[in-house]
Amino acid sequence: MARRPGAESEAGVTFAEKLAEFAAGIRPGQLPPHARETIRLLMIDVAGLCVAARNTDYAIAARGSAVSAGRSTAIGHAGAFGPYDAALVNGTAAHGEDYDDTFEGGPVHAGAVIVPAILAAAEHRSLSGDAVVKGIAAGIELMCRMSLVAPQATHKACFHPTAIFGAPAAAAGVAAALDLPPEKIVHAIAIAGSLAGGIIEYLSDGSSTKRLHAGSAAQSGIRAALLAEGGFTGPLTVLEGQHGFYKAFAPSKAPDFAPLLNRLGTDWVLETVAFKPYACGTMTQPYIDCAIELARSGVRADDIAGMVCETAEGYVHRLWEPLAFKHAPPNGYAGKFSIPYCVAVGFADGKAGFEQFTDERVADPELRALAAKVSYVVNPNDPYPKNFTGHIRATLKDGSVREARKPHMRGGAHEPLSAHEILSKFTDNARFGGWQPGKAAALAEALDRIAVGGPADLTLARG
After folding, report:
1. Beta-ladder partners of 102
2. Around Cβ 319, how many Cβ atoms within 10 Å?
3. CATH of the domain at 337
4. Structural domain containing residue 108
């Protein structure tokens, strides 16, 4: 690999170079069956979420921002677009309801970034399904592993990990799908370091920017890959450098690069991606299961004097505080990142789908009264971010105590959703977006064809 003076790390080869070699060397036919099946299910899950969100205000705004015509599909929308616009629309829609996949070690939402990036680039260049599988494998694997290098530090720096790690991972994935050599892929990763961004101030008012982060990262990944293909360069020490990626986006913690490379290409962490059962923030999900369990045990809302939840310190500034704000989120989107609200609506409705996070439902006085009874205590031994747990200790007005605890997230590595459950979720999401069952089934079949090497053609998903 051609090198520039000053580009070497202490080990002689930079981390970005090692990742580029890995991405270039992926052979779809040699992937473990579970990894390939996860890639298929990720495409199906992301596509269903795009359809579900297609008539929302934010998806319409993203579609309205498109200025290009091309060969790529914005799923659920008429017409065809250039790859940048299609990736932006699909990534924003896929992440829009926070119902997309998550990686428990990060956390990051890899599917909503990588799948839109690879599919848009694949349609743009008429790539094969094998190229799509290779690109998604590279992008998902690297995005998940990058999130393990300095856990929690990105959030502490006020950045959204999905946005930050998504851009270089998508760049590697697109470059791999294009079958670029390692010396081009490394520059794609390096260029994307300067395109990454996304702050978490959306937590203050439930505004739309978190939704944008997945689409923006997908778009940036394509741009970085195509720039690198054309000869544009970036710093090879982008990850570990003195002015590099982790210094910029995770300054509070010394990076440990061991998880980035440990058994890379042998153990596929993408196989542990979690598919969400509920349409809200990742760490809220086990608490919803606890709330549903309490309600099913016969506890009534009127019986409850208060509920205290054990939680991880890393949750507090995003999901618990300011507590008064979390007790009364201003809109449905803000409700997705409030454990008190999620506990209340899970208890009351027994589910947490799209209908539980409308502006009208969040404003319900009875739900707000129940949410106001929910508080927290930090458990210093909570395993976050390696595992997401849930706990509720409910004290009833008669002085008795009821308790529910979940040791892990349902849908994750410890209790995965079945392929049938994920396909049912896809069908329900397509129906929510106004599609007839036949059209949804046709899209699922088209994605299955891509997953086994067929052409990357999503024409039938338009409109």
Report:
1. 274
2. 24
3. 3.30.1330.120
4. 15-276+433-461
